[in-house]
Automatic annotation (TrEMBL):
UniProt family annotation: Belongs to the cytochrome P450 family.
Protein name as catalogued: Cytochrome P450
Keywords carried by this UniProt record: Heme, Iron, Metal-binding, Monooxygenase, Oxidoreductase
GO molecular function, a single term: heme binding
CDD domains, alphabetized: CYP142-like
């Protein structure tokens, strides 16, 4: 059957997750929970206002992990030191990632009784990053071949061409939004290529990524219901692509086709299919795009490092690692303790929520000297935990690094200097850490 014969569902593209939450907060300021614990780093305002650094610094100085007894997401352990996060990540059988136990974000997993009391339906999206061994192993192996060193070599030419063509279209002497024009366009285009996604609809991927990755939306009933509807639309659209690929006469190496031909993934439930799509979309979109914006903002904040980049392009590979460390595009990952255990002198009980704050580990003074400063010559920049650690380390880390390296190389080739020249608006969330808007102007060096 020809591809054109498959009718794709119509999907909404508004409102954006950011607009919906912003409007809700403006209309319901009295509904924002007070935060009695001074170290509750789950609150999104500290990331939106960029005031999180001293809070985590105080916590690190007091110890590797701390129990936060009250938050909008329930009680949790906040793990804030680099060594403690590595230790916990290295014990995946004790500290579970399974969606059935709570998953990978700070969100509270509600019981059937709690959902019934609130008048809400169960909506859970299994994904391989939120699974334990052996299920995690089989599903991760399905998509991992796409991100091998040889796979990166095959993709680099196309990434470089697309990046260069986009940079050549950017205006000179005019203020524009780097996030929308560059970061979103490059990462969404890359996702479309990986999925074999219809190019004309690629911005749907950005829209779905924003609604998927915003944990705060799930705390507002109306917005969470809207979010569920949007993700179901996403699932229906991808289901039409799944049918197309199943019927295709010629084999393809896109991610959907790889799932179809994988014994570990070709019998997924609709919820599991949606969950893995969310994982690949948020992992491939939000993380890289926010570092692409973070690089520009950091170079503007530290002009000495921008000058170093301009004069020494051989530093670009290390600059990529340092910019990833400095930005940390995903602030946390969550684990659930499967048995009573002791970690660094603290007694953690079975069922406790353990939140690994990568954003804090990457500013740990015990590992990174002068961590709040961008230093593209930093010798141990690669020790950052922005991609996680252990069996759940980001499967697409090499692709993110490649995209960022190519962006810096192509900017340098064109002698582009990018200045922050207008509004800077950050994401209001405790999971995705990045920028909604970054108005800039380009000059030459």
């Amino acid at each position: 059957m020809a591809t054109a014969a498959i009718e794709r569902p119509q999907c909404r593209t508004s409102p954006t997750a950011f607009q919906a939450l912003k409007e809700y907060l403006a209309e319901h300021p009295e509904e924002r929970l007070q935060h009695p614990h001074k170290w509750d780093v789950s609150r999104s305002d500290i990331y939106y206002n960029d005031t999180w650094q001293p809070i985590f610094k105080e916590m690190r100085e007091a110890g590797p992990l701390h129990y936060i007894d009250e938050s909008p997401f329930g009680p949790y352990w906040a793990v804030v030191q680099h060594k403690a996060i590595q230790h916990i990540e290295a014990l995946p059988d004790i500290f579970s990632s399974s969606w059935e136990k709570g998953g990978i974000t700070i969100l509270e997993r509600l019981s059937d009784e709690q959902l019934a009391e609130m008048g809400r339906e169960k909506f859970e999206l299994p994904m391989f990053i939120a699974m334990d061994r052996p299920q995690h192993t089989g599903q991760r192996r399905t998509v991992a071949p796409k991100f091998t060193p040889s796979g990166m070599t095959e993709m680099e030419e196309e990434i470089r061409q697309r990046t260069g063509e986009l940079l050549d279209t950017l205006p000179r002497g005019k203020v524009f939004d780097w996030v929308d024009t560059v970061s979103i366009e490059l990462t969404t285009g890359m996702l479309a290529i990986l999925f074999g996604f219809p190019w004309e609809d690629r911005r749907l991927l950005t829209y779905w990524s924003d609604w998927s990755g915003d944990t705060e939306l799930a705390t507002v009933r109306d917005l969470d219901q809207m979010r569920q509807g949007i993700l179901r639309e996403m699932g229906a659209y991808f289901q039409s692509l799944w049918i197309e690929r199943t019927m295709a006469k010629e084999p393809s190496d896109d991610l959907i086709s790889m799932m179809i031909h994988s014994p570990a993934m070709n019998q997924m439930s609709p919820e599991e299919f949606m969950g893995n799509l969310v994982l690949l979309i948020v992992g491939g979109n939000d993380t890289t795009r926010n570092t692409m914006s973070g690089i520009i903002h950091a170079f503007d904040k530290f002009p000495d490092q921008r000058k170093l980049f301009e004069e020494h392009p051989e530093l670009i590979p290390n600059a990529v690692q340092e910019c990833i460390r400095y930005q940390t595009p995903l602030a946390h990952m969550r684990r659930t303790c499967t048995e009573d255990t002791e970690v660094f002198g603290q007694q953690i009980k079975k069922g406790d929520k353990v939140v690994l704050w990568y954003i804090s580990a990457n500013r740990d003074e015990e590992v990174f000297e002068n961590p709040d400063k961008l230093d593209i010559e930093r010798e141990n920049a690669r020790r950052h935990l922005a991609f996680g650690y252990g069996i759940h380390r980001c499967v697409g880390a090499r692709l993110a690094e490649l995209q960022l390296r190519v962006l810096l190389e192509e900017m340098h080739k064109r002698r582009m200097r990018v200045h922050v020249a207008g509004d800077v608006e950050r994401v209001r969330a405790n999971f995705v850490h990045g920028f909604r808007k970054l108005e800039v102007e380009i000059t030459a060096f």
